[in-house]
Design a protein that fits this description.
about 100 residues; mainly alpha; Cytochrome Bc1 Complex, Chain D, domain 2; about 50% helix; about 0% strand; binds heme C; electron transfer activity; Cyt_c-like_dom
């Protein structure tokens, strides 16, 4: 129950930052690399450097997901995480590669 409450809080904070939308419309600008996209689209939920929020929650460092799974996650979203349909597979691949370096 406690975890659910925390996640809802993050979701709300995320919605406020991203404009109250389930579908995040962030679109990478020309020349953005994986780190730039991560900083703009992901860090407010997953923390700078993938360190997560509140310690372990939403931590991405050492994620067991492979690059393909991360790309899928970005493009399709999760149970709570919004989908990023405007991040094309090429850019999603850059973000995934960046996450794997964290
Ligand atoms: C609004 C908050 C939010 C944003 C923005 C967000 N995420 Fe997530 N993310 C979550 C939540 C919550 C989960 C876990 C539950 C789920 O799957 O929905 C998650 C799970 C993940 C996972 C799976 C965790 C694992 O260990 O494999 C990956 C990978 C991921 N996110 C990557 C990203 C990337 C890359 C971005 C930026 C393009 C991003 N997220 C943006 C909230 C967010």
């Amino acid at each position: 129950m406690k975890k659910t409450t925390c996640l809802a809080g993050i979701c709300l904070a995320g919605s406020l930052l991203t404009g109250c939308s389930d579908n995040n419309d962030f679109k990478p600008a020309t020349g953005m690399d994986g780190m730039d996209i991560y900083a703009n689209a992901c860090s407010h939920c997953h923390g700078v450097n993938g360190s997560g929020k509140f310690g372990f929650l939403l931590k991405l460092t050492g994620s067991g997901s492979n690059t393909e799974e991360i790309v899928h996650k970005i493009r399709n979203g999760g149970h709570i995480m919004p989908a990023f349909p405007n991040i094309d597979t090429q850019h999603a691949g850059l973000v995934a590669a960046y996450i794997k370096t964290l």
